[in-house]
Amino acid sequence: RNRCLKKIKNRLEGIKLVSENKPVRIMFQDEAGFGRINTPKYCWTGGTRPTVPCHHIREYRYAFGAVDPCSGDSFFLVLPWSDTICMNIFLEQLSKQYAKEEILLVCDGAGWHKSKDLVVPENLHIHHIPPHTPEMNPIEQIWREIRTRGFKNEVFNTLEDVIDRICHTIASISVETVKSITGRERILSLL
Predict the structure, then answer these.
(1) Which residues are CB-contacts of 28 (< 8 A; sequence separation ≥ 6)?
(2) Are the CB atoms for 61 and 34 separated by under 8 Å?
(3) Parallel, antiparallel, or unpaired for β 74-79 and 60-67?
């Protein structure tokens, strides 16, 4: 883990050297699937056995997100698939949102993050973390927060209801919440 952090820090310093006085930020990216299929979660009702709705309809939408643990800024899109085409849409929109900045975008090694068809805008610099290290990507904690706030023991009648809930739940997460969930000391020390 320390070696990975050192590589991220070195990459960040390299970007700062060539950024021509543009602000440089580090963001952590990932995507998560949300759908109509659900798994009952633990709940407490005060002594009686609760009844929890559940169904198995396999319809999903994917939230693509990037968070900045230092400022608490975040950027999310809900897209139909988790693939290279949707990753390209996400990168293009992220680049436009932060057009006056250079971004070191730290992400895992999913196939669409490394695809030969991936189009990386000029102000984005992708850095891959090692496989099987979700603890290195603090946005994983944001997905947990979204699932806890908006997707616990509920059945959705339509996929549109799922999308609405994703958007509402993401919008309810404040900058301060993002900072407190993702602002790990080892990450903040990179800056």
Answers:
(1) 66, 67, 69, 105, 106, 107, 137, 138, 139, 182, 187
(2) yes
(3) antiparallel
Confidence (pTM): 0.87
In the structure encoding, which two tokens stand for residue 153, read together? 């023991």
8 A C-beta contact, residue 131 and residue 109: yes
Q: Which of 26, 33, 31, 32 is nearest to 126 (CA)?
A: 26
Tens of pLDDT, residue by residue, the chain (191 residues): 678 888 999 999 999 998 888 999 999 999 999 986 655 555 566 667 666 555 666 678 999 999 999 999 999 999 999 999 999 999 999 999 999 999 999 999 888 999 999 999 999 999 999 888 888 899 999 999 999 998 877 778 899 999 999 999 999 999 999 999 999 888 888 77
**Three-class secondary structure of residue 24 per DSSP:** strand
Q: In 3-state terms, what secondary structure has residue 189? A: coil
Nearest to 137 by CA among 187, 101, 94, 64: 187
Burial class of residue 149 in the structure, from the number of CB atoms within 10 Å of its CB (0-12 exposed, 13-18 middle, 19+ buried):
middle
Residue 119 and residue 88 in contact, taking contact as beta carbons nearer than 8 Å: yes
What contacts 24+ positions apart, CB below 8 Å, involve 42-49?
A: 43/152, 43/153
Instruction: Please say whether the beta carbons of 44 and 155 come within 8 A.
Output: no
